[in-house]
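Q: Predict the assembly, please.
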Amino acid sequence: MLKSLNDIWIILSCEVRRVFGDRMVLLIFFLAPLLYPLIFCGIYYNENVENMSIAVIDEAKCDESKRFIHKLNATPELDIAYQCSNMTEAENLMKNHQVHAIFYFPKDFSSRLASTRTAHIGVFCDMSSFYFYKAALTGGNSVLIDEMHTIELERYEKSGLTDVEASIQLQPVVFESVTAFNPCGGYGSFFLPILLVLVIHQTLFLGICILNGDANENRYSLKLIPAHLRRKSVHRVIIGRALCYILIYTPIVTLDLWFIPRWFHLPQLGNLYTILGFALPFILAVIFFGMTVGGLVVRQKISPMLCFVFFSLVMFFLTGMVWPQESIPRFWYHFSLIFPSTPAVQGFVKIGSMGANLELVRTEYMTLWFQTGIYFITACCVIYFHNFQRKLKLLALKKIKSAILQ
Amino acid sequence: MVHHPRYLIILTLGIAITFLVFASITHEGQPRRLSVAVVDMDGTYLSRRICHELNATSGVEVRAVFNNHTEARRAMQRGEIFAYYEIPNGTYNQLLQFNAPHFVLYINSAYMLAGTLSYKQLATMGMLAGAAVQREVYRKKGYGEEQIMGLIQPIEYDTRTIGNPWINYGNYLMTTLIPAVIAFIALMHLAYIIARERQERTLRDWLKSAGGNTIIALLGKMLPYTVWYTLLLLICNLIMFGFMGFPHEGSWLLTVLNSMLLIFAAQCAGCFIACCIPDPPLTMGVSAIYSAMSFSLSGFSFPVESMPHFFYSFSWLYPIRHYFLNYSNIAIYGNGMAQCWPQFCALITFAVLPFLGSLILNWQLKKESLPLNPSSPH
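A: Predicted assembly structure:
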């Protein structure tokens, strides 16, 4: 027992020396998890589109259309940058990206309102970004609902109904909506919690792959078991190395998933112990996943950056936060379970943004432990077979040598 | 000459997988049958009717009916449902007595798309339910159908979504993300190739093979990959705008030019980074940091105009930002060269970077500042 602990300690201290001796890995482990969240928190500091430029064409020129236009301008989302006299003028503004939506009040707007027929307003949205569409709809709908209430109340009052009667006629059913877990519906509050988990996943995974590539380039292998350990001690090598990464990543997880959401006022309902408890299988799964992939395919120090970084986008999309998991085709859903990031993002967002405890994220938690188990076995296999192969090669060399000597 | 074809094959496969993931996931345009629930404290005919009507729409599906708020909240926290209606006790009686019952709709907006879409469906349902009650009252008062509609809904929006008439998320995401991924890979690949020459200490041999002319050496390295990645991007664009039917109003020639210039400009940026930074691993690190921001700074997901001013200005340093603006010019608005030229000029300006890079590389060689073995063993 003491011997195995001593072995693990030796491996751990070797690994710490290797990590702190490699500039590239140091940057990836310590700078990237700090830099990326800061940059992206800066990019998405303004959570929503405000004062989006729109053009208005008022052919109706009546009191109602003027009131409507004033209200549109008063919304936080929209800003009437141009009042155009015809559609061609507004169309040209849109084509030149000067406005992102056009509100068109036709000539019959007031006559239709006067004759209690539905009046139409044409809305033309720039769909190059869905946020333009969202801003036009959010701003436009809030004015529409308000204006409809005003018009309806005026009509009821004219017909002699009291305020109470009129409001019942107006709203036979009252709807109230509560936006939970991201109250302002901001893009940053949605995107950043996912990004923070992906940054931890990718930096740890890349760091391990780079260490493998570096070892391979410099003709010594992390896959080899140190001479004083027997071949049966594969698990000690893996546990020793994993402990080193856990020690490094515990403060990084605390920083990225606990402090940064607080500093930038992102939704944060989870408590630190739940976050750390959930992070343990996540970090372990990523470590063993990194050791497996790094041991199997990485031969150079700089190639992991080339081959794995762009895949973050696919991993981001497969987490199920952007596109609901139940709507993802089964094949891609099972494919997404290869990556520890899929259950981890789901779990951390549920803990952090939605205030779930470990019991509520049991599925994700168990999936991560399952991945940890599988990747631990695969990492052991990679090391074991590498040594087995090496032993065979040495035997073959010995045979050739003895044959030559004979 | 294409060095290390293994990586070219891996990266091409990576592009194909990325395309397949996005195309197959978003092929329906919008996620359908999103899970929602109803908290039925009333337990009457009304709540059952609401469930039936919600299930009749293609957008949402009632997965569960809960008896209390806590159960529904926990289901939401587990991610099983994206929204739920709470129907309080006595709702049906209040409705019959015209007492304006309260419905509360809870939306999980941590899932942005699913939350927004389920909100849209449930809110429409709610409005329709209210309108149905109003319509019955007006009918009994003897109003005509057109007048009833005018009374219930005095004003209506007639919305036209330009460039994406079906509000198809595949169209929105893929038309910019796929070019962004290919440009990202083109940049990283070129940076890798130059960094590899430094790492293997073959930089001088490589430059010698180009007759000592650094710019010819750099362009010679670049062009085979420019052709290959442009070809891949054109194939992707052909599939998207041709076979998948995404709207493309303008000239195909301009799209081809836009694609070519995007790849070329991205490679120029990669070339510049690789020439400036003598340490190969650091080259890859800086390239990755620069490129990783390109998805956000293209401005297609969240408009750059709404970002802090520093990042808005910074976005002009990204070829994908110019590509995105021209994509919207060409494919969405059908604009011609008259509107596209500023972005084309901006993309062509990136061609200065290899020249600057070659100057820096020459200076480094002269000073013999190249490290002998940048990745020394530790």
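Chain B touches chain A through 121 residues (CB under 8 Å). Strands of chain B lie at 34-40, 60-66, 83-87, 102-108, 155-162.
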